[in-house]
């Protein structure tokens, strides 16, 4: 079937009308007519990261999905293009293009979360586009914030039915999409420690977890652990800039020889991988998705999101099974009526329908009981240690209530991650939590009483510390004053000693000056004294 006659261009599958997701009937009508197995490729990324261009290339067209060349997001909601698979005859390739994440005109990232989740839930190959390189922001976006683990874990819980043949959590990779990470305008060198590396090795290295158990290391490892769990099959493609910056806005009109040779080669490798490696969309239990099945999945998931419930594989499979069963009953009744003849319709069809309804109700009750018993045992196994910890008084302390709530949320997340719980999973959990409300209230009251007592003790301790600090401050001031007085006395005594030394020096100098004066006088008057003595002696002789 040629793509021109089958679906010449994309149509809106899920419209985003002011934050509300609305399924378009035109697209559902197209899906309902396709009975071939489907390979579903969805693409998600920020605005203007080349999503629509990549999808047009996969469709074998230059134009189709709207390619934006400005900062304004072009694609709104989720658009669908169904084309014959180029490598698998008898299969349909479904391309889903999504509106750009982080659109500033939207102002609410809740809608981004819903579209992101739908793209993953509906696809068998999930293409994630980023610009320039793999950074922490892009890794965190794949994780999604959530209760203690990740929002992705809550939104994409794959809870399988008891008898569907899924044996353990490793089988989750059988129906979650493969991850293809594309990086536009890649500018780094693919090498590490001087050694060349492939794009796949670059992705694996970016998702490598660190050793350690501190909070920072756990925050670093959490999104990587989430990606490794939900996307066991990963592939990475890097793209050079397709052309000169000025021509990027004309990308869909450029001829191949006007594009970068490396970009053309990289695009060919990407397309070949999608065509040859992408698997048929398959649900738990090995259900291969065709058009009507995909139609039911779209309705189930969008209705779940609009009603505020988290979409999960278990509910989708259950809803799908109910619809298929209803259709089977209708076909059985029609066949039975045909066999019985028109005259016997009133006699034959109603008993058969009653028997089928009774059998269906009986099976449903058995499933509900089996699910309820399974969930009760699982809840006791998961929450049992918490109940024992409460009995031992481990949460009877200030702040114990918050610790109790935090542990409860962790155990709820653990419960949600367990497989094969059945249709009573959520109801059993809510009943259990309600039965433990009295325990939670008791922990709260104990916490409040101990917290009030601790507050009093803290106030007393603060007052004592303040008094102690005041006394210590007064002692410091007294010591400082004493030190000042001692220093003042020391300087005073030093001045006195200095004055005494100076006086002594002055007296000594005066004594030396007097001695010198006497010496001078002695020198001046000594000759006269000698002469007078001589005269005196001479007169004496004359007499």
From TrEMBL:
Coiled coil stretches, renumbered: 450-502
Pfam family, one: GBP_C
Positions of the GB1/RHD3-type G domain: 35-279
PROSITE patterns in the record: G_GB1_RHD3
A Gene Ontology BP annotation from the UniProt entry: cellular response to type II interferon
Superkingdom, taxonomy of origin: Eukaryota
Residues that span the membrane, as ranges: none
GO molecular-function terms, A-Z: GTP binding; GTPase activity
Keyword list, A-Z: Coiled coil, GTP-binding, Hydrolase, Immunity, Innate immunity, Nucleotide-binding
Family affiliation: Belongs to the TRAFAC class dynamin-like GTPase superfamily. GB1/RHD3 GTPase family.
Name of the protein in question: GB1/RHD3-type G domain-containing protein
Organism encoding this protein: Spermophilus dauricus (Daurian ground squirrel)
């Amino acid at each position: 079937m040629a793509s021109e006659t089958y679906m010449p261009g994309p149509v809106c599958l899920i419209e985003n009308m002011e934050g509300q997701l609305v399924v378009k009937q035109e697209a559902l009508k197209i899906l309902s007519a396709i009975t071939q197995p489907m390979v579903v490729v969805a693409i998600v990324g920020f605005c203007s990261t080349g999503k629509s261009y990549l999808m047009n290339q996969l469709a074998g067209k230059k134009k189709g999905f709207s390619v934006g060349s400005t900062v304004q997001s072009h694609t709104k909601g989720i658009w669908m293009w169904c084309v014959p698979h180029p490598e698998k005859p008898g299969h349909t390739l479904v391309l889903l293009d999504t509106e750009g994440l982080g659109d500033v005109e939207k102002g609410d990232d809740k809608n981004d979360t819903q579209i992101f989740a739908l793209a993953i839930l509906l696809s068998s190959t999930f293409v994630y586009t980023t610009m320039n390189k793999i950074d922490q922001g892009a890794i965190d976006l794949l994780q999604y914030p959530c209760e203690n683990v990740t929002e992705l874990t809550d939104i994409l819980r794959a809870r399988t039915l008891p008898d569907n043949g899924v044996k353990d959590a490793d089988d989750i990779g059988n129906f979650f999409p493969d991850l293809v990470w594309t990086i536009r305008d890649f500018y780094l060198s693919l090498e590490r420690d001087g050694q060349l590396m492939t794009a796949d090795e670059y992705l694996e290295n970016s998702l490598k977890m660190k050793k350690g158990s501190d909070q920072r290391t756990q925050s670093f490892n959490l999104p990587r652990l989430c990606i490794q769990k939900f996307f066991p099959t990963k592939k990475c493609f890097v793209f050079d800039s397709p052309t000169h910056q000025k021509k990027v806005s004309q990308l869909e009109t450029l001829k191949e020889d006007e594009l970068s040779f490396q970009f053309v080669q990289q695009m060919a490798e990407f397309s070949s991988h999608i065509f040859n490696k992408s698997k048929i969309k398959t649900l738990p239990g090995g259900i291969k998705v065709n058009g009507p099945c995909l139609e039911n999945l779209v309705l189930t998931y969008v209705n779940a999101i609009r009603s505020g419930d988290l979409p999960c594989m278990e509910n989708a499979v259950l809803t799908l099974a109910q619809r298929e069963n209803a259709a089977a009953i209708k076909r059985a009744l029609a066949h039975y009526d045909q066999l019985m003849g028109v005259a016997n319709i009133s006699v034959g069809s109603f008993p058969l329908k009653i028997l089928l309804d009774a059998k269906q109700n009986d099976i449903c009750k058995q499933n509900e009981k089996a699910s309820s018993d399974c969930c009760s045992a699982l809840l006791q196994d998961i929450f049992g240690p918490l109940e024992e910890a409460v009995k031992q008084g481990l949460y009877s302390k200030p702040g114990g209530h918050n610790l109790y709530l935090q542990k409860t949320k962790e155990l709820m997340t653990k419960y949600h991650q367990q497989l094969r719980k059945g249709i009573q999973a959520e109801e059993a959990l809510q009943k259990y939590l309600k039965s433990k409300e009295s325990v939670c209230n008791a922990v709260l009251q104990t916490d409040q009483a101990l917290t009030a007592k601790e507050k009093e003790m803290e106030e007393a301790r603060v007052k004592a510390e303040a008094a102690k600090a005041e006394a210590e401050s007064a002692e410091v001031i007294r010591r400082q004053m004493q030190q000042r007085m001692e220093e003042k006395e020391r300087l005073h005594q030093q001045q006195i000693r200095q004055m005494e030394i100076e006086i002594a020096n002055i007296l000594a100098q005066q004594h030396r000056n007097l001695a010198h004066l006497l010496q001078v006088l002695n020198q001046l008057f000594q000759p006269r004294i000698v002469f007078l003595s001589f005269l005196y002696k001479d007169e004496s002789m004359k007499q």
